[in-house]
Amino acid sequence: MNAQQEYVLRTITEKNIRYVRLWFTDIVGTLKSVAVAPAELEGAFAEGIGFDGSAIQGLTRVYESDMLAIPDADTFTTVGSLEEPVAVMFCDIASRDGEPARSDPRSILKRTIDLAAEYGFTAYAHPEIEFYLFLPGSSDDVEPTPIDNASYFDYVTRSVAHGFRRDLILSLERAGISVEFSHHEIGPGQQEIDLRFADALTMADAIMTSRVIIREVALRHGVEASFMPKPLHDWPGSAMHTHFSLFEGENNAFHDASGLYGMSVTGRRFLAGLMRHAREITAVTNQHVNSYKRLWGGGEAPPYVCWGPRNQSALVRVPEYKPTKPASARLEYRALDTACNPYLAFAAILRAGLAGIIGKYELSEPAETDVLLMNDLERSVLGIESLPTSLESALGLMRQSDLVAETLGEDAFDYFLRDKRAEWVEYRSQVTPVERARFRMI
Description:
The protein has 13 helices and 18 strands.
């Protein structure tokens, strides 16, 4: 037993924690949980917790069903109230012989992080998590009712959101998750929580934990939190704009004061990789049929493959940063939505950027103006392609992508495609209220 595992066991005893949750996700990012008594935790560290992996979407095949959930002591935190804390740890999934499960999303991100490390890089991420708060009891057949009619940066003392964000930040910080900003977003009832940057694996774990805490705090306030990419027809969808950077030791590999917009050659090549591979990774970063209603529904969502400084319509933005703080140099990827599996999405984005570095890609010209205001001919002249317009077209591009196949691995690649294809077929067969209203009298 290592020192961190001993620390976890000691802390659980000292704080009289009586409930331990072990977490992992399936291929699309649904959180899975198994509860163990504190007395069983030492054995879980040594041998893992056995379960039927074939019952977890996309994890393994029926004839390889016996799997192990091995808690990662480095992810230990507590959630819940101060009076009744609950211990939480994320797990790595392994086969009975101890080999990492080929389709475990957390292991897939770890493989990509290891690839970055081979080239001397450590990847960091900083997400802006958007979501809506709705009044409870709405029917699935009608649009949900937001908790308020406020908008961007509004300070509304009578809204549930005021107390909700305060309680949420306290709950996140008790769980060891640092919050940089929180505010009301553009849509009615829409919120944003920005997490302080951390390494990519820690941040993916933090996003999964944050979703749980957001939902639990919302329930305590008598409302419902939704991470649906586009829940309201007339209002912006919920994005998860994420800032990425690579470090070489203590130095930000994206920074060069003399480079274009302060970007180093490494930063420009990483960005070029994002531009070249953006279309084929979109099924991973935007994995639901509803995701494409956000991408193509306006509200500063980025449907076109371009980049630019200070350009809110670009797929990738180069944020301004203080010259005295080179560590803050970064690239903001704006296609991500809050319903993605952060492990797979981060892996795909990092792998695309690394491909640009390894392959020494040349960076295209920036888009200096709003590409949403251009017509198709203007975008074509500038060589600006569009992201997929539907999950079906995104899956078609992903199916042909060697980069995504190598990132996910053969099994996860196949599981993901089959699961998302089934989602598209089910969606395509539905008859919607819009169709009935328009065509029922034909």
